[in-house]
Specification:
Chain lengths: 159, 826, 269
């Protein structure tokens, strides 16, 4: 393949197929938010630290601010918008609400995707494992304690 | 490194009698459904057809003359809609209103740098383009010629004769200065058995760095001159007061709309300069203009918490440990522009004595400018800095005089039977039981086994320390305190507004003047209204966010200063009661009975003695809206009630700087256990207790969430978070890579306890409580000092103590010991 | 946060990648992107062409070698290293250290090759590779060559990999004794302020100190922990001063961490 400044990519996001033209320089997070208008995935920093942009990319949790949209050609991406189904909240979403694991809600989509990735791979995590799974997601409102409780509750089917 | 931490344990709760109804219940949050689905509308989510994206060109120098700004190359780039420079701003706007006295009020503060850059990152020009990327690209093509000037970053040098002067118009770096003196410090000194002197205590610059950066989307309606400012600014009242005169327009021409906000913590109060620039651009370019702040911009330019240094502290103490007062000089560094300042120069005095009974207090207070980011009222604003100081004083005095830190606090705490307590400067602490809270905290932290743990840690080569941090969260400001700084200012009191209506189909709709950023206002407002209207919170719809057009706000509207539980809910209560009264009179008129016979219950207005005679809300709404023939002529009922809550304040005494400056005082006592690795200075918080008393907790879970979040922010501020500058005024921590905020693995086990000492001054006995986290900083400092007793008896004198600072103290105990001295008087 | 214009090519083979790197001046390989994309967001560096290596299966995989060593493809991710049975059996310290790099999301994309070739002085893996005596295999237009780890790191962000070359794999020798690693970080499992890796074999310790110089500083000592610390004291390096640590503090940390790394390697830490 010779270098290109852009191309048309095909991505599956939350089960929906999209085809869009992208510039090579466009970050995946901007593609999701601006081109596909899925604004649930958020941006909180410039340096890949905060995790607000976390999505699940071909089954792994990644920070979508450090992937180019053009790299995602052919990929399956799961974002927060795909968690609930038919109006039913995902157990993690219910748990977050019940445990007051969100205040302003800005870090929440990223947290939910990191938590989902954890539970998909480790259905019965310890508290420490939950913390490690969320280490890449910054929250300034909650101090994390309730978020950890929420993930544990969801893992135990308590939500 | 310790292993897994235990989850938050069961609460120790002492609460007031639970009453039937929704107040005191942790009802499900209305906000959650949209937020957990990523359907919150944050400012960067908003789009407008044809909008242009703003990128600010910023000064790379902390202090420099701007020789020229050339935007021509930027304008040539395809897709660039236009630019804005300082020259245009100086013509089209007036400088922002300065709150301070002469000569500080001569400072010229515009939305873009005019003539000179005063801090690194100050916006010098703005570029608007069709996409974010193009705006960013175009910004690089703007050519600015600078003439660097000497830089001032040391607040203690700001008043030196040869210090660089930040603003030429006032000609001095002093923003405000004054002497605060209550009681008789000289006679207290004479009476003292010991005088403890501390040369220097320094409160570091940091901020709560909300995850969502600031932003705005501004539209200008040319025919009416109306600006529509969508933003996450949390205090539109203040923004309007700043922007309207600057833009030479009326207050109502600035419509502020907010929706969901990703945290603010005071950091989103002073965004009026960026919003002003957007207003000018929207008008100039005849299109909506969108601005989203970058993380680096937030750290560099918007905004820091006040940095304050306390010098030459003197504390007279009696032999039995009673502390009589203190005297010191304080220098507050507000960065390059005051903006919300100098209010910080008085706001600390809401808590002049901290939690303590000393009566003789003197502070020689000066606020100065430096070439650093302007400050803003960050969470804990000005009180936190002062309360850290008082706690350090208590802790250091106890340390030096070998007094038990628990005993000394209990001896000097204001007692619960003295409440309401008038402080030396006339503030009234409404309620609280500090001694009891301290006991709760000590139990939660395992005080009884402290020495065992200390010995065990020593066996592993670690130094264990326990620290106590007591603090207050003063809430609901009396803005009259501004007159103590500048008698010419025309601000006093406080207010908040709520409007409630019963609509055609029986919907109850509340419109708030507040600007919530995660505190759950929609939920809590509905709890209060539901109790009054006899329905459930689910029956009540609270509009999301804030909108000037709702006309449900006033000059002080916003969400800041720990007051929603008092002002916001006071307004909701007042409006709901008005509506309830109208509903009863309407029902009475329809049912043909006296209004007193009607009760609101079960979603109905019904006769108390004959429940069958009832009108559902929908009936009342329909009658007033579309079916009103035959109603009594004198029946004045609109079912649309607007209420302005006004706390009972007077203008304080300007001569004596005396008077009640805040309505409520929530209290927090935290205790923390640290383990220091003496070889590296690295330390871990191995256990943590937080006891909070904010009076009646309207929604306990939300209160707990605030306690958690404030604690986490304090831990960050205590251990790592600092906006450090080099001598050229470069910010060394401009992003989350270098400015480390706590992550999930950094959190200690948390044991929380609650006490409810109702406030006699508020409708529900509730107190505002969003800012109590400072206690964490005080506790960590005290714990580190305690840990180092065995290693050199160091004195902790900085608020932020990263490993390198702990290590330096361990290497050179003398450097800290030199800061304190004890003079024996008898 | 917004990159400059750039061209993108997805390499189809190592040879293709090498060709693309050679044909385009200012071309950079794109591995996990956890460093490079951030650098481009800050516009601190802006390559004209990105050569995406993520499709190259030949750069993936972790295998044991006939000599009893371990071979890791340059494009293995941190997560793959952490979860690899071979790494866990053969060099568990490598898995343990790698599991503390940043966070799950970064580990899912970040690669061994990216970590080594970016050679940020605060990275965990360069000192560990140097201490372990790793060998780096580099592919260029004229074929392959190997460079020992000690000679691989040349300066800040600079390695022996030329602009038209690719790191293809890292080979670790059979473990002789024990491995140790110690660090002081910014926050729990954060960026390193100083780190030290130690590999002990036959009473000798090879140490590599990170974060104190442009490249890992090699120190040799006996495997007696105090001797290791003493050897670091007299070693020739000039640590930087920054907002997280002074030069003096870094020096003292290097001594302490060297001792702790050796203690861990010999099984007492």
């Amino acid at each position: 393949m010779d270098p290109v400044t852009g191309k048309t990519i095909a991505v599956n996001v939350n089960g929906d197929q999209y085809e869009r033209e992208v510039e090579a320089r466009q970050l995946l997070v901007h593609f999701l938010r601006d081109d596909l208008e899925l604004t649930g995935t958020h941006i909180g920093c410039d340096t890949g630290n905060c995790g607000a942009c976390t999505v699940i990319y071909d089954g792994t949790a990644i920070k979508s601010c450090m992937l180019l949209a053009i790299q995602a050609d052919g990929a399956r991406i799961d974002t927060v918008e795909g968690l609930a189904s038919d109006g039913e909240l995902h157990p993690l979403q219910r748990a977050f609400s019940e445990t007051h694991a969100l205040q302003c809600g800005y870090c929440t989509p990223g947290m939910l995707m990191s938590a989902k990735h954890l539970l998909d791979n480790n259905p019965e995590p310890t508290q420490h494992e939950v913390r490690r799974a969320l280490q890449g997601n910054i929250c300034r409102c909650t101090g994390y304690w309730n978020i950890v409780e929420a993930v544990l509750a969801a893992s135990k089917g308590e939500a | 490194m310790t292993e897994t931490v235990t989850p938050t344990e069961a609460l120790v709760v002492e609460e007031t009698e639970t009453r039937p109804g929704f107040i005191g219940q942790s009802v499900p949050r209305k906000e959650d459904r949209r937020l957990v689905q990523g359907e919150g509308i944050f400012i960067d989510d908003m789009k407008r057809h044809g909008m242009g994206f703003v990128h600010f060109v910023r000064s790379p120098y902390a202090h420099a003359r701007i020789v020229s700004v050339d935007v021509s190359k930027a304008l040539e780039l395809d897709g660039v809609y236009g630019t804005l420079t300082g020259d245009e701003v100086a013509i089209q706007t007036d400088p922002y209103f300065e709150l301070t006295v002469p000569p500080g009020n001569e400072i010229k503060d515009y939305c873009l740098a005019v003539g000179k850059a005063h801090y690194m990152g100050e916006p010098v020009a703005a570029v608007v383009a069709a996409t974010r990327d193009l705006a960013r690209d175009a910004a690089e093509l703007v050519e600015v010629e600078y003439e660097p000037l000497p830089v001032l970053v040391d607040p203690e040098r700001a008043q030196d004769a040869d210090a660089p002067v930040i603003h030429e118009d006032p000609g001095s770096n002093v923003v405000w200065s004054g002497l605060f003196s209550w009681g008789e410090i000289e006679s207290a000194m004479a009476e003292a058995d010991h005088v403890v002197r501390i040369q220097r205590l320094h409160f570091d610059r940091f901020s709560s760095t909300p995850l969502e950066c600031s932003g705005g989307l501004v539209e200008f309606d040319r025919p009416t001159g109306q600006w529509h400012i969508y933003s996450n600014n949390q205090f539109p009242g203040f923004a309007a007061i700043m922007m309207a005169p600057a833009l030479r327009t009326g207050i109502d021409k600035l419509r502020f709309i907010s929706h969901d906000i990703g945290g603010a913590f005071g950091n989103k109060i002073c965004t009026h300069p960026q919003l002003t620039a957007c207003c000018l651009l929207a008008r100039k370019l005849k299109r909506p203009v969108q601005w989203t702040e970058w993380r680096t911009e937030q750290h560099m330019t918007n905004t820091h918490g006040n940095e304050r240094v306390f010098l030459d502290v003197e504390v007279p103490v009696k032999a039995d440990g009673t502390m009589l007062g203190f005297r010191c000089r304080a220098i507050d560094d507000c960065g390059a522009y005051p903006r919300y300042e100098p209010l910080g120069c008085i706001i600390w005095s809401q808590v002049t004595p901290g939690m303590y009974r000393w009566r003789h207090i003197e502070i020689d207070f000066t606020q100065i400018c430096t070439n650093k980011s302007p400050v803003g009222p960050n969470r804990g604003y000005s009180r936190m800095q002062h309360l850290w100081f008082t706690e350090r004083v208590i802790d250091i005095v106890a340390h030096e005089l070998d007094l038990d830190p628990v005993e000394v606090r209990k001896r000097n705490y204001i007692r619960s039977d003295e409440m309401p307590y008038e402080t030396p400067n006339g503030c009234v602490y409404d309620s609280g039981d500090y001694s009891k809270m301290l006991d709760m905290a000590l139990e939660l932290i395992g005080y009884g086994v402290l020495e065992e743990r200390r010995a065990e840690a020593a066996e592993r080569g670690k130094l264990l320390g326990l620290g106590i941090g007591s603090t207050l969260d003063s809430g609901t400001n009396n803005f009259g305190q501004s007159q103590l700084l500048n008698p010419e200012l025309q601000f006093s009191g406080n207010n908040e507004v709520a409007t409630i209506k019963l609509d055609l189909l029986g919907e109850v709709v509340i419109t708030l003047g507040t600007v919530p950023q995660g505190q759950g206002h929609e939920t809590v407002a509905s709890q209060v209204a539901a109790e009054i209207l006899g329905c459930t919170p689910d029956d009540i719809h609270v509009r999301v966010g804030h909108d000037t057009y709702w006309n449900s706000h006033s000059g002080f509207s916003g969400t800041y200063a720990s007051q929603f539980a008092v002002t916001g809910l006071g307004a909701v209560k007042g409006a709901a009661e008005k509506l309830a009264e109208e509903m009863r009179r309407l029902a009475a008129a329809v049912l043909g009975c006296p209004a007193d016979d009607i009760e609101l219950a079960g979603g109905m207005a019904r006769m108390r003695d004959n429940r069958e005679a009832a009108l559902p809300f929908m009936a009342l709404g329909a009658i007033i809206n579309v079916n009103n023939a035959g109603l009594p002529e004198d029946l004045d009922v609109t079912l649309n009630a607007r209420y302005v809550y006004r706390p009972p304040f007077q203008v304080p005494d300007k001569e004596r700087k005396f008077g009640n400056l805040t309505l409520t005082y929530a209290s927090q006592i935290h205790a923390c256990l640290v383990e220091v690795d003496p070889e590296t200075g690295a330390y871990e918080i191995v256990n943590y207790a937080a006891v909070d008393d904010c009076g009646k907790r309207i929604h306990p879970q939300i209160v707990e969430g605030q306690v958690h979040g404030a604690t986490a922010q304090a831990i960050g501020a205590a251990t790592h978070e600092t906006f450090a500058y080099d001598e050229d005024g470069n910010l060394l921590t401009p992003n989350f890579y270098d400015y480390h905020v706590p992550h999930a693995l950094d959190m200690p086990p948390l044991h929380a306890g609650y006490l409810e000492s109702p406030s006699p001054f508020t409708a529900y006995g509730a107190k505002g409580m969003g800012e109590g986290g400072g206690a964490g900083i005080h506790a960590v400092c005290a714990a580190l000092q305690d840990a180092m007793r065995a290693a050199g008896n160091q004195i902790v004198h900085d608020s932020c103590n990263p490993p390198w600072r702990v290590w330096e103290m361990l290497q050179d105990a003398e450097s800290t010991r030199r800061l304190v001295s004890v003079e024996e008087r008898r | 946060m917004l990159l400059r214009q750039v061209e993108y090519a997805r390499a189809e083979s190592v040879a293709d990648a090498v060709r693309l790197l050679g044909e385009n001046s200012n071309a950079r390989p794109l591995a996990g992107g956890q460093t490079l994309v951030n650098v481009m967001k800050a516009r601190a560096a802006s390559p004209d062409v990105l050569v995406d290596l993520n499709g190259l299966d030949e750069l993936k995989g972790i295998r044991t070698t006939p000599a009893g060593g371990l071979e890791l493809g340059s494009m293995v991710t941190y997560t793959e290293m952490v979860e690899s049975e071979d790494v866990g059996d053969f060099r568990p310290r490598l898995a343990e250290v790698t599991s503390t790099i940043a966070d799950v999301q970064v580990r899912n994309r970040g690669t061994l090759g990216g970590n080594l070739c970016s050679n940020d002085p605060t990275n965990h893996l360069p000192p560990l590779m140097v201490a372990m005596g790793a060998e780096m295999t580099i592919a260029g237009s004229s074929g392959e060559r190997t460079v020992p780890a000690e000679d691989f790191f040349l300066g800040v962000y600079l390695t022996a990999v030329e602009p038209d070359e690719l790191l293809t794999k890292v080979t670790l020798p059979p473990p002789g004794g024990g491995d140790g690693f110690a660090a002081v970080t910014i926050g729990r499992e954060g960026t390193c302020i100083v780190n030290a890796a130690a590999v002990v074999h036959d009473g000798e310790a090879r140490l590599a100190i990170g974060c104190v110089s442009a490249v890992p500083v090699v120190v040799r000592a006996s495997s007696e922990p105090e001797a290791a610390a003493a050897a670091v004291t007299t070693a020739d390096f000039d640590p930087p001063t920054d907002v997280h640590a002074s030069a003096g503090y870094r020096r003292r940390l290097a001594e302490v961490l060297a001792r702790r790394a050796v203690q861990q390697a010999i099984g007492v830490g």
